[in-house]
User: Which sequence fits this backbone?
């Protein structure tokens, strides 16, 4: 949690944090500013001191609203610095960085850097800064770095924001179900009044509209994939596909708060009207494994143990799993879940990248999303909820929604 | 343009381009893949050869749809690499990168890197790769790098996509004007049927909804700022503010294609019902300068000359300008414009960062957005259109919309 930041910096021997970039769609900056319309800012936090936000003067009111200590970047835009840099804008930028650090009393130590900006910029500026300040050690540690570690466990305010996104998400899923159930059927497909097929692109457009109505953003699109597409976990679906009865539809929706805030992640698999025997059998396997895993989740347990467990459970039901073949494309082919927060995918990891420190610590919010994929047979099934590992030891699904496979349709 | 890429690589002595990250909200990857639902991919282009896209196997269909040469990242996920890296995931990642380069025949030369991912990752991986491959020189050149230089001039397909976003943008602006003009007025404010004030937050929600209906995305929010907020160029406005008649409203809207594609950028300043004399006078100054600059734009001219010219024109009308005081907060306080494309702000630059190579070359799409700001007097005015420097030498505004200041309202 954010309140652990100084402690995490000490444990990892980090003296300074530097975050660069906008305050939206940039999780570390959003996390430390609370989100704001800052198109470009710099934030420096020295261990034991509150963070300082360096803002563009055109954004002074937005910066002030963050409630952080602030400084005006224009104070570092001097002609003197440009002259010192012989007109080289990158050198001027790095001299500016050095002066900002100096004004914060930083001349040496270990500094961790963050911020979602283009690698061409971050690599240039921070390698130049490293050369300019050899007493300072710039580190780009990844999962174990202080900010990302703090972000892994959520405080109650963050959980309530994720829960609110869960409510919006399930409301939109409900609207989508109602829409599909109320359409006419002809020749084994959902059709418009004029008999023309309803296509996946139209359904996605409605989903986007309902999300916008609810004040949510959908920066990474929605998966609404039928048939063979449903058999490929990240296939988003083919816009021109009609909605054929009886085939599996994987509907994976992961919106965030407007302005690049907290995400929710949710999947259901539906068959319109009826399910084929093979779809029904796969669904029952996935649902049984989902329920078994949910029963077995324990605070503090290692995530990769559950990945092994889900492979064991699917293997016992006769499915090939990624545990035995990392390149597997039919069967159980991905990881059981991942953390969610300001990133749609963040720690803890459950799959190949999971380390010993990827655990279900109190405060973690994560997905549980077993699935089975048989693209060559034209189907796939995934069921997913987002779960909060509560401080009281309970595992709570943050938004309820029926897990039924078959979605009734109007016949005739 | 994209077709210049090999030539630009040669001119800048770059042998290899490496792009990392997702294919949405990541301009260099979007540019080279055409946009796709790739949550993480790597792309390598060797000079004189077509780019190769390395994809996550769960996204194989999305990768195939790009039409690029593709390779499966799973082929680089071997246990052998993990062992070589002694279980260090960053080392494993960098060994993987080395092997990918090796498979492309790259062992030395100059490689430019790109991709909007967190600096902690890009810095870690590319500094480690640089140490591992000393014969390779990794460069993070910024504005002058081959991809960003190629992106600066748009081909006709790109211009048509920006134009289509301009049409959506002006349609939404028109709906907003119609909405405001059709509301009741009471006590000098727009009000609901029940007499309660209509607030800026409600208007912004409608704007988001209309953008979503039109299939656009709004990743960087909208500026809809009244009174003193309108006097601060990047203030997005205060949600709880009522819509008071006679005050300036700066409405700056910059949506992009869904999935993180091309942007449009557009600003009007409105006064509801009537304008105060001071607002009217500022508006006339801004409009006159806008028209004068539009008349003077010439293909191939240096952008910073126009920044100097606009300062000269505003100074002649009695306003302080940023040319004489870079920290100025009242008067003409920002730059005349910027390029637009897959970034809302990209080259060419007009302001302090502009270099000799920032020119209005044929194919550039850029904004012209003079403005005057007097926050202490509670107002600001900005007028902005997006302009295409056409190959035939003409300067074309890509979406028409009236520039009127006063928006009529229903009285009574």
Assistant:
């Amino acid at each position: 949690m954010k309140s652990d930041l100084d402690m995490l910096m000490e444990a990892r021997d980090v003296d300074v944090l530097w975050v660069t970039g906008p305050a939206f769609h940039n999780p570390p900056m959003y996390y430390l500013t609370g989100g704001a319309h800052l198109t470009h800012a710099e934030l420096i936090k020295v261990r034991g001191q509150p963070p300082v936000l360096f803002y563009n003067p055109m954004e002074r009111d937005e910066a002030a609203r963050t409630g952080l200590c602030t400084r005006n970047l224009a104070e570092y835009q001097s002609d003197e610095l440009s002259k010192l840099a012989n007109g080289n804008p990158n050198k001027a930028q790095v001299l500016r960085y050095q002066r900002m650090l100096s004004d914060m009393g930083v001349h040496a130590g270990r500094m961790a850097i963050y911020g979602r900006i283009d690698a061409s910029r971050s690599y240039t500026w921070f390698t130049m800064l490293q050369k300019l300040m050899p007493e300072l050690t710039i580190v780009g540690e990844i999962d174990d770095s202080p900010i990302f570690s703090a972000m892994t466990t959520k405080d109650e305010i963050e959980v309530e924001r994720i829960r609110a996104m869960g409510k919006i998400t399930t409301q939109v899923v409900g609207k989508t179900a109602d829409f599909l159930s109320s359409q006419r059927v002809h020749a084994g497909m959902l059709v418009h009044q004029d008999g023309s097929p309803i296509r996946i692109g139209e359904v996605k457009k409605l989903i986007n509209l309902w999300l916008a109505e609810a004040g949510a953003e959908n920066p990474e699109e929605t998966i609404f994939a039928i048939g063979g597409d449903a058999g490929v976990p990240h296939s988003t679906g083919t816009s021109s596909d009609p909605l054929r009865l009886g085939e599996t539809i994987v509907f994976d929706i992961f919106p965030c708060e407007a302005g690049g805030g907290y995400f929710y992640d949710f999947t259901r698999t539906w068959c319109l009207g009826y399910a084929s025997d093979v779809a029904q059998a796969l669904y029952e396997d996935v649902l049984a494994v989902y329920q078994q895993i949910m029963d077995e989740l324990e605070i503090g347990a290692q995530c990769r143990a559950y990945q092994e467990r889900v492979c064991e459970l699917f293997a016992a039901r006769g499915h090939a799993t990624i545990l035995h073949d990392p390149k597997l494309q039919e069967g159980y082919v991905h990881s059981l879940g991942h953390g969610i927060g300001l990133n749609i995918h963040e720690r803890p990891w459950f799959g190949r990248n999971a380390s010993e420190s990827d655990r279900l610590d109190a405060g973690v919010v994560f997905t549980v999303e077993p699935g089975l994929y048989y693209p060559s047979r034209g189907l796939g099934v995934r069921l997913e909820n987002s779960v909060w590992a509560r401080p009281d030891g309970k595992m709570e699904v943050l938004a309820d929604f029926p897990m039924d496979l078959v979605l009734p349709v109007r016949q005739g």
User: Anything to note?
Assistant: The domain at 153-407 of chain A is CATH 3.90.230.10 (Creatine Amidinohydrolase). The first strand of chain A starts at residue 16 and ends at 21. Chain A touches chain B through 74 residues (CB under 8 Å). The mean pLDDT of chain A is 94.
